[in-house]
Design goal:
alpha/beta; three-stranded parallel β-sheet; globular
């Protein structure tokens, strides 16, 4: 409804592969994931020229104590869980506007 193309994945490994072909401008990731946490995913993607299309990295976590992990790897913003769809769409509009 927002006129944006999006895609989702279920693991960091899948994100790395899919983002190479999808070429997103924004990557939103949870902090706690199986095998590779979100901050490590961001670190890996930033180190790869395959992901140069990503201009904004956004973290999502339920722990305010762990937000610093996202900021330490260059996340632009961290959303605190739980958040609703309206809050996420409002944030997405802000991020898209920032990229324009």
């Amino acid at each position: 409804e927002e006129g944006l193309d999006d895609d989702s994945v279920h693991s960091a490994d899948e994100a790395i592969i899919k983002a190479k072909a999808f070429k997103p401008n924004i990557l939103c990731t949870d902090l706690k994931m199986r095998k590779v946490d979100g901050d490590e995913l961001i670190r890996k993607m930033k180190a790869s020229s395959d992901h140069a299309s990503i201009k904004l990295y956004i973290g999502m976590t339920g722990s305010t104590d762990e937000m610093h992990r996202f900021f330490a790897v260059g996340a632009r913003e961290v959303l605190s869980k739980p958040f609703g769809l309206t809050e996420f769409i409002t944030a997405m509009r802000r991020w898209v506007k920032e990229l324009e």
